[in-house]
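Narrative of accomplishments. A recurring question from our advisory board has been how the design workflow behaves on a single, concrete structure rather than in aggregate. To address it, we present the structure tokens for one chain from the evaluation set, followed by the sequence designed for it. No filtering or post-editing was applied between the two.
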């Protein structure tokens, strides 16, 4: 997966004294138990945005033969099927990632045999190498579809966790900067709340692709890139005067 550097977070922060809270409560903040804080707090909101490229690609290879004899049609397709499967296996593709479907029919006085091999790749460079080899060796006797890129559910879950953690990290750093501005030291977190998450772009696992046939490989990957943003609200305790040694760092 790939990620973009988080943009600067928009921050809302306020230093709140314990006595002032009773007079001017913050509507968005849940009630704070008296035992959880020694007095002063800093309230901060921050956000992050990350992206992740697709982690899977599906390629379909189609071959066919039409002969007067049924056995000849089957044999022609079977030889190419075996070559495709061997080429993929020798380059590390697992059997579980290859699916073969066959269709046999009769048209007038001939027999037609058609087959499709669907291969799922997690290594896109390996995918290109295999497809280039098959085009070189089989020529026009094999039709290779443009790759369909997508995300597995695990990749989407990882992106969601990463953007949330990044937003919390941004929020904590902003809280530290606010405290340093007033010569204070940031304490422990008292509250961390995920307020808003958004996701857009990306492709789910699907056998059909709506992408244009004319797109380049990089354009297909970019179109399948997923994005997520997260905004969090946090309350930190203010410990007191900042350590003099830390101020020099």
């Amino acid at each position: 997966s790939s990620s973009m550097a988080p943009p600067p977070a928009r921050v809302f922060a306020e230093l709140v004294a314990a006595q002032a809270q009773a007079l001017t409560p913050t509507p968005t903040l849940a009630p704070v138990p008296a035992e959880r804080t020694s007095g002063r707090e800093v309230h901060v909101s921050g956000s992050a945005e990350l992206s992740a490229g697709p982690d899977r690609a599906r390629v379909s290879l189609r071959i066919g033969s039409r002969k007067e004899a049924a056995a000849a049609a089957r044999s022609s397709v079977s030889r190419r099927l075996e070559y495709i499967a061997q080429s993929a296996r020798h380059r590390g593709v697992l059997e579980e990632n290859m699916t073969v479907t066959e269709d046999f029919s009769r048209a007038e006085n001939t027999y037609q045999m058609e087959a499709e091999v669907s291969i799922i790749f997690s290594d896109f460079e390996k995918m290109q190498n295999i497809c280039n080899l098959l085009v070189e060796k089989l020529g026009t006797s094999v039709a290779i579809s443009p790759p369909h890129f997508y995300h597995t559910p695990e990749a989407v879950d990882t992106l969601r966790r990463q953007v949330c953690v990044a937003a919390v990290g941004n929020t904590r750093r902003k809280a530290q900067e606010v405290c340093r501005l007033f010569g204070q030291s940031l304490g422990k977190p008292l509250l961390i709340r995920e307020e808003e998450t958004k996701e857009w772009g990306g492709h789910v696992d699907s056998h059909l692709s709506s992408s244009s046939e004319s797109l380049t490989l990089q354009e297909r990957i970019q179109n399948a890139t997923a994005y997520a943003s997260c905004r969090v609200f946090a309350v930190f305790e203010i410990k007191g005067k900042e350590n003099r040694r830390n101020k020099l760092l």
